[in-house]
Specification:
Elements: E1 2-3, H1 6-9, E2 16-25, E3 27-31, E4 37-41, E5 47-58, H2 60-73, E6 79-81, E7 90-103, E8 106-115
Parallel strand pairs: 1-6
Antiparallel strand pairs: 2-5, 3-4, 5-8, 6-7, 7-8
Length: 120
Amino acid sequence: MAIFDGTTLQCVAEPSYAASVSETPDLRVTSFGDGYHQRNTMGMNTRRKNWSLTFSNRTNADRDKIVGFLQARNGKESFDWIDPTTTNYKKYICESWSVDMTSFNNNTISMEFKQVFESS
């Protein structure tokens, strides 16, 4: 299992702030003819976190390591990452990222990590 951290990437792997997180509950909503709705959670893991992250002021070498890690997973293979609100690894995927080359040897990388629930 791949781990997204400074040891694996051999560079600074902490996101710049402000990072933002959103949660989406997995719900099944049943609508009845009289205007009433019934809501039920789906499965055991009912809330997924999505993190919008920015890695600012990264050298070309660090940019290549971070982007190379994401390219190697190709949006389909999950990896372990510790989000800023916990101390435990959780599984995430990253389906898209972008790089802004702000000046010579200075890059900003933006990405979204989506939490997934799967066996190890």
